[in-house]
Specification:
The complex is a heterodimer of chains A (788) and B (168). Chain A has 788 residues and is mainly α. A four-stranded antiparallel sheet of chain A has the order 1-4-3-2. Chain B is built from five helices and ten strands; from the N terminus they run αβββββαβββαββαα. In chain B, the strands form two sheets. Chain B has a five-stranded mixed sheet with strand order 8-1-2-10-9. A five-stranded mixed sheet of chain B has the order 3-6-7-5-4, with helices on one face. In chain B, a hairpin with a 2-residue loop joins strand 9 and strand 10. The chains are: A mainly alpha (788), B alpha+beta (168). The interface between A and B is medium-sized, with 10 and 15 residues.
């Protein structure tokens, strides 16, 4: 507002200055054909006058602006009574401006006239002309300014007045102060203009008469005798050497027998005396001396000029007095509100309506400006929120980048996982290719069955041996040794058992390799989980900021609603105001203008508010959209986290399963070793048994050996059964791993897909956030409009 | 605006234009005192048929006339745009509800046509005339003729009762 005001002022000053200057030039041009001055002289003098005035004006504008500002500030602090005086003072300021502009022109003209008279050899008449020209311009300036900028000035005054005090403004308009200020100017300008033209024409005529007379014999001799001695003196011109215009002309003229020449540029008069062989002698009469030549006309003109000046001085004085009385009228009128006369009912009604209206208007504008301020506050808060959101967006983008990075490394992890799973497949022969483990297991099974058979056989043999002991005497050693040989012949079986042990060992080694692969994988999964956690944190932050923005936008909507209510109120007021104005007839005319203005204001505000509302609802839509998107992302991420948890859990399961398998294999290896050692024991026993048989030791020893053998065999059987259980365990573990591994792969694929869609959603959210920021910027503009 | 100003003000009539139901009505500005927002209408015990209640206008109780009933218009619930017009009928203030107040309009006297005979026959002389704004017909109501002598007397009685109540 202030800036705008300043702009108006500047425009006033600038355009006013330019127009005045142009006016000066125009008047100057007109006068230049009537009054004696060279064009250059005229131009320079006018320029100086204009510049001096412009300088004054600029300084003055600065001061008047400062004064208005200070007054306005004071006004807010003063009581109601003082307010009237203050308002009056402020109202007088713009009016004073036009006065002062006029006086500045006058001062500028006087100064330039003096400068030219003192330093540039201008004559008094020329100086007077400069002064008049300046005055002329001075009169035109405020007039033209006023008529060119009438509307703007009125608006400016209106703004000023509405801001200060409605009643004063109303009265101000009805007393039509601007017209009172400018009317005297118009009159004075006309008088001056006519005077200037009359004076200049008169003077020129006078001059020519004077010159002509002076060249007449009597007068010429008078001049020559010293009473009116020309200052210019004699000049000698050689026509052969003359290059100058004047001299050339003089030479030509003298040849033609002319006696005098008036130079149109300088108005100097040349009187040719002698022509000697082409050399011309001439007396020069500078015109400023010629003007002093007494003339009855001159005196009259001087009197006229002085009269005009007196009028010029008188008119502004009268105007000021008039203005003062106008202001007194306003003052009286305003003071009358304390004691309204009961007789003047209609007038009182209007007056109180006015008072009430002014109060309402004041309240409303104040309320509105408060509302706008709170709106502004809201918006700055919103801007903060948005900034926060933007900061979060950066965080968000970082998080996304991290997620992307993780996704990339995840892809590597997934490849590792795949490799691992393939290895698993190879190891366990889960699929068609890897039959090794299966074969091993099968082998284990087969062999253990064989072992069982063998042990059963051995047991049978032992039992048979045991029973045959009773029939020892009947059957001699032949059958027995055959049985024992049976036992001994089973040594390939023993070898087979050793083979199993080897296979088991190999399997165990494979398992440790698998473990080696699995552990870093697990570590990577844990890292990914961390990244996902961070991501979730970032997303929650963004969600929260967006929620905040949502709340803020709702608040904005609320404020816009309040503004709408105020607008409705204002509309009602303007309707009432127009009713009052229409009823008041002529008296209410200016009031009707205000009512119209208020209505316009309300309409304008309504449009702006509607636009704001639109933006707010759009904003809310976008925010809603963003919130939805964020929820989607959140859901996705939740799913993602769940997936990761699942993967983690599964990989832990696989590891524990492999651990278990490893253990069982280790046990198997131990068992196999034991079995093989038992087998060798058995071998030993059989050998001993054979020896016993061959050496025919004591019966008791024999029985003991057999007993040992049987117990060993029984123990072996037990081990074998255990080992079979281990094998069963292995098979189930492999099945489980296969199952989990499949899941694992599936989940990993799922994770990859969700990563992609999360990426997509995030970019959508970023887009909609960008749109929101844009909308908020739009809204800022609209709010500025509303505030303006 | 400027053209209008050149013609003398006596050639113009100003009307407050408002809407009841779907119809537009106008009242001469000199019969209107004020336009206010909708206020709470407190009902009167045993009221005359055309008075729907009283409102408190800055401490003054003002009877609210049921213009819908008087004009035979269907009953509507007042919306957000509804306003109360305070009018002066033979020196007494009274109000009525308009569904929406459009504007204050200046019309050249010549543009206000007298009401068709049919209207005069059916509604008595309550219509001063009609004019058109934006091809919509506005019926000009004469508040003083709208109510019968008896009804005005009733109003007078009510306002006297109110005044007595104020004194007590």
């Amino acid at each position: 507002m202030n800036e705008e005001k300043r702009k108006v002022y500047r425009e006033f000053a600038f355009i006013g200055g330019i127009i005045s200057f142009l006016m000066l030039l125009m008047v100057g041009f007109y006068l230049s054909i009537t009054v004696r001055m060279t064009s250059a002289q005229r131009l320079y003098s006018l320029l100086t006058a204009g510049l001096v005035c412009l300088g004054f004006l600029i300084v003055y504008i600065f001061f008047i602006l400062r004064e208005i500002k200070v007054e306005m500030e004071n006004l807010e602090r003063t009581d109601a009574d003082d307010k009237i005086i203050k308002v009056e003072k402020i109202l007088a300021l713009p009016a004073r401006f036009s006065f002062i502009a006029f006086w500045f022109w006058a001062i500028g003209s006087i100064i330039s006239a003096i400068i030219f008279y003192l330093f540039f050899g201008f004559s008094a008449v020329q100086s007077i002309e400069i002064f008049f020209l300046g005055m002329c311009g001075g009169f035109f300036a405020p007039l033209i300014m006023y008529y060119l900028y009438k509307d703007r000035m009125k608006k400016f005054l209106k703004n000023l007045a509405v801001k200060i005090d409605y009643e004063s403004y109303q009265k101000f308009l009805s007393f039509s102060l601007p017209l009172k200020v400018t009317l005297p100017f118009i009159i004075s300008i006309l008088i001056t203009f006519i005077l200037i033209i009359a004076i200049s024409i008169r003077m020129r005529d006078d001059l020519i008469i004077g010159v002509l007379k002076s060249i007449g014999e009597k007068e010429l001799s008078l001049l020559k005798t010293g009473e009116h001695q020309p200052v210019g003196g004699k000049i000698t011109i050689d026509p052969n050497e003359t290059k100058g215009k004047i001299e050339g002309t003089i030479a030509e003229l003298s040849k033609k027998g002319k006696k005098i020449y008036i130079d149109p540029y300088t108005m100097n008069i040349f009187v040719f005396e002698k022509i000697d062989g082409g050399i011309i002698e001439s007396i020069v009469y500078p015109w400023k001396d010629l003007v002093r030549y007494p003339s009855r006309w001159n005196r009259a003109i001087w009197i006229l000029a002085i009269l005009a000046l007196a009028i010029l001085v008188l008119i502004p004085y009268l105007t000021i007095r008039d203005l003062k009385s106008s202001i007194d009228d306003i003052k009286n009128f305003l003071e009358r509100k304390e004691r309204p006369t009961p007789s003047d009912d209609e007038f009182n009604f209007l007056f109180f309506a006015l008072l009430k209206f002014a109060d309402d208007f004041d309240n409303i504008t104040r309320g509105m400006s408060e509302k706008v301020e709170s709106l502004e506050k809201r918006f700055s808060e919103l801007t903060e929120s948005i900034k926060f959101v933007e900061a979060n967006l950066a965080l968000f983008e970082d998080a996304i980048g991290e997620i992307k990075k993780h996704t990339e490394s995840e892809k590597g992890d997934i490849a590792v996982l795949r490799g691992f799973l393939n290895e698993c497949k190879n190891f366990f022969g889960i699929e068609d290719e890897g039959v090794q483990i299966n074969a091993g297991v099968k082998n284990n099974k087969e062999v253990s069955e064989e072992i069982i058979n063998f042990i059963h056989d051995s047991l049978e043999n032992g039992k048979k041996i045991f029973s045959s002991i009773k029939e020892l005497e009947k059957f001699r050693s032949h059958e027995l040794s055959q049985r024992i040989d049976d036992l001994r012949e089973d040594s390939p079986r023993v070898r087979k058992i050793k083979n199993i042990s080897d296979i088991n060992k190999m399997t165990s080694e494979n398992l440790s390799r698998i473990k080696e692969i699995l552990f870093p994988l697990d570590l990577k999964i844990k890292e990914s989980k961390e990244a996902v956690k961070k991501f979730v944190g970032a997303i929650r932050g963004v969600s929260k900021s967006i929620e905040n923005v949502k709340g803020d936008s709702e608040k904005i909507g609320e404020i816009a609603r309040v503004i709408k209510e105020i607008i409705e109120e204002t509309n009602l007021l303007s309707l009432n105001a127009s009713i009052i104005a229409a009823q008041a007839g002529e008296k209410g005319k200016s009031f009707a203008v205000v009512a119209e203005e208020i209505k316009e204001l309300a309409e304008r505000t309504e449009i702006s508010t509607r636009e704001i509302n639109q933006i707010v609802s759009e904003l809310q839509r976008f925010i809603e959209n963003s919130v939805n998107k964020m929820t989607e992302i959140s859901n996705f991420v939740e799913g993602f986290v769940r997936e990761f948890d699942y993967i983690d859990e599964k990989s832990n399961l696989i590891i524990s399963e492999i651990e278990k398998m490893d253990n069982s294999f280790k046990g198997l290896v131990k068992l196999s070793n034991e079995i093989s050692s038992f087998c060798s024991d058995l071998d030993e026993t059989a050998k001993t048994l054979a020896q016993v048989f061959t050496s025919t030791d004591s019966y008791e020893k024999y029985v003991e050996y057999v007993k040992t053998t049987v117990s060993i065999l029984e123990k072996a059987l037990e081990f074998i059964i255990k080992s079979q259980n281990f094998v069963e365990d292995q098979i189930s573990s492999v099945r489980k791993i296969k199952e989990k591994g499949g899941f694992y792969l599936q989940k990993l694929d799922g994770v990859k897909n969700s990563l992609g869609s999360i990426d997509h959603k995030i970019s959508e959210v970023v887009n909609s956030l960008e749109r929101i920021v844009k909308l908020i910027n739009n809204m800022k503009i609209k709010i500025k409009e509303v505030r303006a | 605006m400027k053209k209008e100003e050149k013609i003398s003000p006596e050639q113009f009539l100003s009307f407050v234009v408002f809407r009841i139901g779907e119809e537009l009505f106008g009242i001469n500005i000199f019969q209107v005192k004020e336009i206010t927002n909708m206020a709470e209408i407190s009902s009167l015990p045993n009221p005359p048929p055309f008075i729907s209640g009283l409102i408190d206008l800055r401490g003054t109780l003002i009877p609210i006339l049921d213009l819908r009933k008087k004009l035979g218009l269907p009953v509507f619930n007042p919306t957000k745009r509804a306003r109360i017009l305070i009018v002066s009928i033979k020196g007494r203030l009274a109000g009525f509800i308009a569904d929406e107040v459009k504007d204050v309009i200046r019309i050249e006297k010549g543009n206000v046509k007298s009401a068709p005979l049919l209207l005069k026959e059916s509604g008595g002389e309550i219509f001063q005339g009609i004019f058109k704004i934006d091809s919509k017909v506005v019926f000009v109501l004469d508040m003083e003729r709208l109510f019968t002598e008896k009804e005005i007397m009733d109003m007078k009685r009510i306002s006297e009762i109110i005044k007595k109540g104020d004194k007590e």
